[in-house]
Amino acid sequence: MNETSASNFLRENNAKHYWHPMTDPKRSAEDPPLIITKGEGEYIWDIDGNKYLDVTGGLWNVNVGHNRTEVKQAIIDQLDKIAYYNTFISSANPPSIELSAKLIEMLQPEGMTKVMFGSGGSDANETALKLARQYWKVMDHPEKTKFISLKNAYHGMQFGALSASGGILWRRAYEPLMPGFFQVDNPDTYRNPWTSDPSELANICVNILDREIQHQGPGTVAAFIAEPVQGAGGMIIPPDNYWPLLREVCDKHDILLIADEVITGFGRTGSMFGTRAWGVKADIMSFAKGINSGYIPLGATAVNKRVAEAWKRDHPLAPIMHGYTYSGHPLACAAANANLEIVERENLPQNAAKVGGYFLEQLKTLKEKHASIGDVRGKGLMLAIEFVKDRKTKEPFSPTDPYPALIAKHCRDHGVMVRNQAHRIILSPALTFNTSEVDEAISALNVSLQAGS
Questions:
Q1: How far apart are CA 243 and CA 195, in angstroms?
Q2: pTM of the complete model beyond 0.85
Q3: How many CB atoms lie within 10 A of CB 305?
């Protein structure tokens, strides 16, 4: 099949047989997805050769940029040895051993001592939830099975992870979900009914959590799980005192604290890990996305010494009866080892902080020009624009209003790829982004907002 025939085949079959994630199939049929064929650094190209600045970073995850030679070579080198063998019971492979040691080294400030691997963020959070329940059973507290999370949180699509997720849109089609999961209010400084003072808001939200734990009974609660910065559920950046207060209330009631670092891990917020920015040590941490920049699916779950020590007990439920066919996949772990070397060598967390700060300042300037922007916010290279119909009332655009999607489409037409989600635009470029690329993105956004007015 020559290049023209291959391109025609792809166009004819685009969305014809494949149900795309998080999309109404009717929409894909009516407006077939953009076919992306190439990536280089911070740019991607479609099947027609059109070039776009990728301000989505793949999906929060291509942290070191597209088509990195070091990561590709690590995969090729491992392919020349062995592509796959399982890591169940009595088998291991060098890349997974190397990666486990590297992660524990990087996580020394958090006190992590053990790690398990899966194939992505949902896997990582599913593992965290299961290990939390198992921990309490092995510690002879079998009634501690409940989980508390935040409203609008996103923790994944498997039934356990989805049950912890708080977004109604993700849940409705698959309810009823698993019992034993409860959500409390998140610390949304832009949209909350109580206060405009961030510190006071943190105290209010953590007090609500405290009361919910007491209502459920601390002896029945296994863990509280949250993202250091709430990503898909609204890009909610918590007040500085929020996570330290979470740690206090979890310690007060003797429940585990799970940090969902799937998005925030490995530099996106401007520190190597999201919770590290607030000096907080979780008991369990889950990772994916930035662990190997999406070159091959991989997730990881780490536990601290306190949790790991439980498995030294002589208990009938101590065997870890959990894992996946692709746990510790040699190619994925090889890619991660090369990826993390880049993250550290190029100090990408520092670049995310610097360039992200510049990006946020430019977004604030953009907000001054366009009345439809109600709020802009960000931490590192994790940013959002929130659209409103009225700044005074903060009335958002409805989920069916075409305006936010129209702005994203205009940006694409001007060579900049952004992601619209409900009444927001999410900006999550590679951590290798620079200020000139920020200017390119801001220019396209400005033109698009003018066109959409």
A1: 18
A2: yes
A3: 11
